[in-house]
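Fold these two proteins, one after the other.
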Amino acid sequence: MASLKDLLAQRAALEQQIAETQERERSDAIAKVKSLMQEYGLSVADLTARAAKTGTAKSSKVAAKYRNQATGETWSGRGLQPKWLKAAISGGAKLEDFVI
């Protein structure tokens, strides 16, 4: 059975190997990327411009379709009905009563 001192020394050696391997693999990846960029005539600006074009579009807000006249709360008609609307409908009101 190894002593604590031996185990700590082994851990330090492993951490050193991990750091060296990470650095080597990172350098290899950078070299690959640079090679591909040179092969296809790309610049960093090309990469950032393409990423901006293919990024997810922000979802725009949907206009409210229903309004609670008492509180001013609104609902677009998408997703779950808000509690105030559910309560009003269960109290006898109709959805059409809240149309904006």
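Now the second one:
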Amino acid sequence: MPHLSYVNVFAKDVVALSGFYQRVFGFPEIEAIRSPIFRGLDTGKSSLGFNALDAYELLHLAEFSDTRGVKFLLNIDVDSKDDVDRMVPIALEAGATLVKPPYVTYYNWYQSVLLDPEGNVFRINFMM
């Protein structure tokens, strides 16, 4: 059965952006795969990678490298509503921008919507 192993984010600064997700969520770095243009974090069920913009060329994606606008949404699940409420201020202190404060969705999740320091959208979720 196929499974998701990685989600990779193109980043202007792989060290700073991976460090943001480490500080906010405590994801440890996978040091064995570190390179000058890549950092990987262990999220427990899959991994979150950060590729430097040089990777566009390496992957033959240079013609598709228009990074304007929202291109993806990272969803990070936590264990409780209290965890959502606790982590939002941590994310803000680490450089995130609040888009939507914690709320209950129409599908009964408790979540907050934020932008990381490079403007990528992510949600902190608790599935009630």
